[in-house]
Here is the input.
Amino acid sequence: METDVAMVESPKRPAGAAGADLNGKGTDFEEFERAGWERRSGTYDEGFGRMTAGVHEPLLDTAGVRPGTRLLEVGCGTGRLALAALGRGAAVVATDAVEQMVAAAAAALPRARVLHGALPRLPFADGEFDAVAGAFVINHVPDPVTAVAELARVTAPGGRVALSCWDAPDRNPAQGLVAAAVAEAGATPVGDLPSHSPFAPYGSPEAFAGLLAGAGLTAVRVEPVRWTHRVDPDRWWDDILTGTVLTSSLIEGQDARTVARIRAAYDRLVAPFAQSDGSVRLPVAALVAVGTRQA
Here is the structure.
């Protein structure tokens, strides 16, 4: 795994980046996400969830997690990041917006406190945690600005908030192959679905840093993180369909002929990453942003 650190200036908030998705449907986006993750709570972990774990150690390093750290993880999913934090000796509280994920994480994390909690409304006191971490959760909330402000609120003075998001699609084939295949096939989503996450305007290093700085966090920086995911290409197609919500919605509801056209495009796009054993080695790229709560 290769990690480069880049300090960035904190820009102004992107124009139009409010608490709704880019279609102006913030509440609808929240409901869309929650329902989608409820359906995927039993299929996410060993597929797409296994891939996302590549960011966990860099994220915990950035958050400053060590023995005795009072850590809050938001969007814990099935508990992989929280488990890594427990391995460092942290005292972990984990939350997720989906009850089924909470149940799965609670079963996997007997030494952690696991609660139902959806950003931007967390059931914690001001300054309750030494560090807060969220792996690919900020891109699933209906109002990123309010969500980061809430994370800053529950962080103790001098503590850190560390969040990850996906890097640009051209640096991130693992996460973006299916969406690229949909575009190549000329397919359009079926039904009234969100076209983007409300986080989309913050997906650059500069805007991501500005999001944290806007919540009053200081010493904000963004770290690009790179790793490689090795997987069978047929399995990865299934992992994306059963382990994502917004991306898989591009396929759901399509007729059989359109799905076949998308799959053919996917097969062509994934082929350059093939290995001699039939697997593919897919580059993965994320951004980790961190800021410190003022003392």
Q: What stands out?
A: Confidence is low (pLDDT under 50) at residues 1-26. The beta strands are 2-3, 70-74, 91-96, 113-116, 129-135, 155-166, 218-231, 280-292.
